[in-house]
Amino acid sequence: MKVLVTGSSNGMGKAIANKFLQENHEVIGIDIEDATIDHKNYTHIKKSIVDTDLPEINDIDILINNAGVQNSKDDIDINLKGTINVTEKYGLNKNIKSVLFMASASATTGAEFPRYVASKGGVVAYMKYVAQEIAKYQATSNSISAGGVLTDLNKHILEDESLYQAVLNETMLNKWAEPEEIADLAYYLTVINKSMTGQDLLIDNGEALKANFIW
After folding, report:
1. In 3D, which of 35, 143, 131, 52 has the Cα closest to residue 91?
2. How does DSSP classify residue 138?
3. Which of 57, 95, 122, 211 is the most core-located residue (most Cβ within 10 A)?
4. How many angstroms from the chain centroid is the CA of residue 88?
5. Neighbours of 109 (CB within 10 A)
């Protein structure tokens, strides 16, 4: 199948692109950074997801909206408006099989930067809209709301032993997710899954659930 992944140069996006390449799919990546994947079935497009002149790409089977920023003045423009821009360009078509959105655990908890929280909450709501729009094609639309993931975006935490331990203590399983774990789930949701749609999956090692019972 032909798979389009935004934010494919780093972190979860790169792991997802590599997963689909390993499974012998054709992958097209869109990122503002240069390509970091060298594979015969990979095509890189150096663009921002907010650009109005995104190239024409026909017959996209799977769209994975991963690109985003955090704690910037552009969180809503890129994370939400950019995601809508890409989805309207490539996802709402009769060939589509699945659209997947990378939201965030903060869309559920609200425990992060205000514009980021608002943007990711909007992504979850928009995911549900897309599920309704593409159901006529027997296509699915879902989102992954990850908590802590071991990527360079969180480098300042991972390299600070006390800070890292503090965030691990907030989880029930005392760990964060690997990017490859998110990639495996992305593959399942878009290729194997045929019946679940309009759902947001919270992958946070039990952080939101953790609570102390006081009696």
Report:
1. 131
2. T
3. 122
4. 16
5. 15
Strand partners of residue 16? none
Q: What 3-state DSSP class applies to 141?
A: strand
- Calpha distance 70→23 (Å, rounded): 30
pLDDT (tens digit, 9 = 90+) per residue, 19-38? Answer: 999 999 999 999 999 999 99
- The vertex-7 CA angle with 73 and 99, nearest 5°, equals 105
Q: Domain ranges for the chain, please list them.
A: 2-147+178-203
> Long-range CB contacts (< 8 A, 24+ apart) of 88-93?
89/54, 90/4, 90/54, 90/57, 90/60, 90/63, 91/60, 91/63, 91/130, 91/134, 92/130, 92/133, 92/134, 93/60
pLDDT score recorded for residue 60: 97
Model confidence pLDDT, tens digit, residues 88-140: 999 999 999 999 999 999 999 998 899 999 999 999 999 999 999 999 999 99
Statement: residue 213 has pLDDT above 80: no
How confident is the model at residue 214, as a pLDDT? Answer: 75
Beta-sheet strands, E only, within the chain: 2-6, 26-31, 42-46, 62-65, 98-102, 140-146, 199-203
CATH of 2-147+178-203 given 3.60.15.10, 1.10.300.10, 3.40.50.720, 3.30.479.20: 3.40.50.720
Q: Is the dihedral of CA 149, 150, 152, 156 positive or negative?
A: positive
